[in-house]
Amino acid sequence: MTGPLAPTVRVLGRRHVPRLLSSALLGRLPTGMAALAILLLVRDRGGEYGLAGLLSGLYAAGGALGGPLLGRAIDRYRQGPVLVGAALAAGVGFAALGLVPMRGWPPLAATLLAGAATPPLESCLRVLWPRVVSADLLHPAYSLDAAAQEILFVLGPLVVLGSVAAFGPAGGVVVAAVLGVAGVALFATAGPSRTWRGEPTARRHPAGPLRSGRLVRLLVSLLLTGFTLGTFAVGSTAYAEHAAGRGLAGWLIAANGLGALIGGVGYTLVRPGADLSRRLLVLSVALAAGYLPLALQPAPPVMLALCVLSGLSLPPVLACGFAIVERVAPEGTVTEAFTWVVAAFGVGNAAGATLGGVLVDRYGAVAAFLIGAGTAALAAVTVARRLVPARP
């Protein structure tokens, strides 16, 4: 096959790729479901946006705390046992959240467990790409990966709505538990995952990949990007309740995910960048510009279109960031470095959801949208100084 999509088709034609990619998406689907599932569960049981934002924030913060630890364990040992154990623990957390009353410490503990035990499938898949595709296909592979994960944020909210309709308010979190375990089981039993081993190093630095200052600066930028997405989830739910009903929230989040899917597929057509630092800066500015119009809060049809627009730049930002990680992560820390990227994004998402819930309770959805656009702009400022030298 020839044409702009030929590299992507070649990636998908490689042995193991369809199974690895599809099972990773299935196992990560709870990440795309969690924010809305928690929001709808809390609101159905009479909780306020502040509590919903706190729980969503705890879930993301748990992932940020647990992800690097799981990644370090995988770097030192192997993928399968760590992934399966984490998936079972996360499933217990989700199931418990659906059963406990929304008061006191039980929902906090259940949500934190579900987040902290989130299997780092995203990082595990990215360290496997060089083993399953040739070097000339790594750029389309990373771009396809970043685009495909946006399916989570298109399907996730819709799966939540269907699960709640079928099984009641707790359906979203219970179905998330089941899907997470199923996806990990398929991924961890695939050949490349079973045979992968971390790179041996003479000595382990206690800071791991965080001893790279350039990586830390990249993490700060992605943390701010995650903050923007966290405020969007809460702001869009508040907008939906006032504009047309709570059910609209799932469609707004799905529209954002659809825009991200379009942007990610489009990015697979772009040539690999020699100057990744400048590309990341331009993409971060575009991300901020895409989220700002949401503060206008127009009628629902226009808002849906703006949500699609706001999602376009996110996968290119992430794909570019992942490519930079490979250049700045110290040897023997690649899986952990990728989990720190996911963790930084998760911490930002947690902070955005938590602060967004407080702002929405006090000032309405517009405050969440404005602060989200502002943090996206700060993410661009953070990477204004070059992260890596340009390659010829």
UniProtKB/TrEMBL annotation:
GO terms under cellular component: plasma membrane
Predominant cellular place of this UniProt entry's protein: membrane
Domain (Major facilitator superfamily (MFS) profile) ranges: 214-392
Keyword Oxidoreductase: no
Keywords: Membrane, Transmembrane, Transmembrane helix
Keyword Ribosomal protein among record annotations: no
SUPFAM superfamilies recorded: MFS general substrate transporter (SSF103473)
Membrane topology field: Multi-pass membrane protein
Compartmental location: Cell membrane
Membrane-spanning segments: 20-43, 49-70, 82-102, 173-194, 215-236, 248-268, 280-296, 302-325, 337-360, 366-388
InterPro entries: MFS (IPR011701), MFS_dom (IPR020846), MFS_trans_sf (IPR036259)
Designated name of the protein: MFS transporter
